[in-house]
């Protein structure tokens, strides 16, 4: 609900009622205001960013009307750029487009493959900075039906620098999406998350094999720390084709052998 509160004959307050959600504590929004004469001429305009708690009013601006004795029209634009959840984590709002988003070269739009329904609007410059796969001319990314929308959003939040809370199972799905988009920073985030959660999962031969073949050197260092002897490493190596190992993985294993002689 947008409200205009008259202060005096030439001044008004512009407010938005935010008490409509119990999912967020606070919002950050970009606002655009314009005052136009009855003939359509722009009398005044303002653009800025504001924050407010969601349990009251979002105070946009106190506004002095240029010609208070004549009819005028307000034009108003609002885009919620970020929200603070109940978990105290700020997240970007990818669900709503910026003003003229699809025609704006600054945005990349994610759409469903089957019906071209828009899923997310993201910032092109940041996505392109981290992506090694998306061409510079990209405006739209088609999302296959097999991709979880929830996991895709988490992937994009991480790409924009948000420290998303996710389970070990989520990390595997997010990493798959990140690799398909070439998002190096998300891939590194997932690897770091897996390292931090090693004490919560059972370290298996399959986990070692995947790490050897994909050259995930940072994860391998921590996996090797779970082994107690050269005999245990030998047992792991016997389960795989050594020729498929990356050179960096071989170096790490060699170092482990000599260190534990």
Write the layout of secondary structure elements.
Blueprint lengths: L1 E7 L2 E7 L6 E14 L4 E12 L3 E8 L7 E14 L4 E3 L14 E6 L5 E6 H7 L9 E4 L5 H11 L8 H14 L2 H13 L8 H10 L2 H8 L5 H8 L9 H13 L2
Parallel strand pairs: 8-10
Antiparallel strand pairs: 1-2, 2-5, 3-4, 3-6, 6-7, 8-9
Helix pairs in contact: 2-3, 3-4, 4-6, 6-8
Brief descriptors of the model:
three-stranded antiparallel sheet; about 260 residues; alpha+beta; 3 domains; four-stranded antiparallel sheet; elongated; Potassium Channel Kv1.1, Chain A
Descriptive overview:
By secondary structure, this protein is an alpha+beta fold. The chain has 3 domains: 2-92, Immunoglobulin-like (Sandwich); 107-196, 2-Layer Sandwich (Potassium Channel Kv1.1, Chain A); 203-259. The chain is built from 8 helices and 10 strands. It has helices at 124-130, 149-159, 168-181, 184-196, 205-214, 217-224, 230-237, 247-259; strands spanning 2-8, 11-17, 24-37, 42-53, 57-64, 72-85, 90-92, 107-112, 118-123, 140-143. It is elongated, with a radius of gyration of 26 Å. The mean pLDDT is 81. This is BTB domain-containing protein.
Number of helices: 8
Mean pLDDT across every amino acid position: 81
How would you characterize the largest beta sheet?
4 strands, antiparallel
The total number of structural domains is 3
Helix content: 25-40%
Silhouette: elongated
Q: What string gives the helices and strands in order?
A: EEEEEEEEEHEHHHHHHH
Any idea what the radius of gyration is?
26 Å
CATH topology descriptor of the largest domain: Immunoglobulin-like
Let me know the CATH homologous superfamily of the largest domain. Answer: Immunoglobulins
Q: Which architecture of the largest domain does the CATH hierarchy give at level 2?
A: Sandwich
* Alpha-carbon distance between the two ends: 72 Å
């Amino acid at each position: 609900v947008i409200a205009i509160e008259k202060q005096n004959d030439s001044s008004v307050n512009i407010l938005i009622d935010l008490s409509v959600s119990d999912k967020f504590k606070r919002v950050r929004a970009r606002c655009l205001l314009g005052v136009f004469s009855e003939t359509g001429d722009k009398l005044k305009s303002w653009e800025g960013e504001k924050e407010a708690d969601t349990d009251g009013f979002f105070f946009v601006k106190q506004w002095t009307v240029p010609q208070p004795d004549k009819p005028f029209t307000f034009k108003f634009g609002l885009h919620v750029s970020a929200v603070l959840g109940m978990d105290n984590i700020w997240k970007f709002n990818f669900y709503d487009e910026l003003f003229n988003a699809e025609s704006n070269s600054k945005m990349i739009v994610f759409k469903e493959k089957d019906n071209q329904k828009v899923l997310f609007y993201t910032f092109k410059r940041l996505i392109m900075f981290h992506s090694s796969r998306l061409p510079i001319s990209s405006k739209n990314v088609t999302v296959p039906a097999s991709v979880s929308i929830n996991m895709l959003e988490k992937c994009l939040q991480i790409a924009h620098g948000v420290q998303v809370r996710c389970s070990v199972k989520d990390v595997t799905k997010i990493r798959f999406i990140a690799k398909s988009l070439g998002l190096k920073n998300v891939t590194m985030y997932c690897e770091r998350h897996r390292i931090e959660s090693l004490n919560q999962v059972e370290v298996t031969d399959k986990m070692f094999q995947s790490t050897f073949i994909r050259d995930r050197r940072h994860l391998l260092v921590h996996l090797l720390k779970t082994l107690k002897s050269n005999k245990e490493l030998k047992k792991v190596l016997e389960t795989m084709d050594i020729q498929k190992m990356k050179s960096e993985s071989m170096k790490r294993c060699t170092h482990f052998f000599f260190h534990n002689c």
